[in-house]
Design goal:
mainly alpha, 2 helices
Length: 81
């Protein structure tokens, strides 16, 4: 192999090793953080789901107005929904 090929291979090897080192460091940090996290269980509170009434709006669709001002007003009204 030529000198250029060897340089390119060693450069790509260094990049792959650096990428693997970053992935390993990130994974070990995440695992270490998850192992050391112990949430407090002194005050356990049951969570009740909130029930909300939903009002359904009915719309009557009308054909688009032909004048530019009415068209802009119509677009503004529709953008509120």
């Amino acid at each position: 192999m030529s000198q250029k090929t060897n340089d390119a291979i060693s450069r790509s090897d260094r990049v792959l090793v650096a990428a693997m080192a970053i992935i390993l460091a990130t994974a070990s940090a995440a695992i270490g953080a998850s192992l050391t996290y112990h949430p407090s269980t002194d005050k356990v509170v049951a969570i009740k789901p909130a029930v909300q009434a939903v009002e359904v709006a009915t719309l009557r669709l009308q054909p688009a107005p032909r004048s530019p001002r009415r068209l802009l007003r119509w677009i503004r009204i529709l953008s509120l929904f």
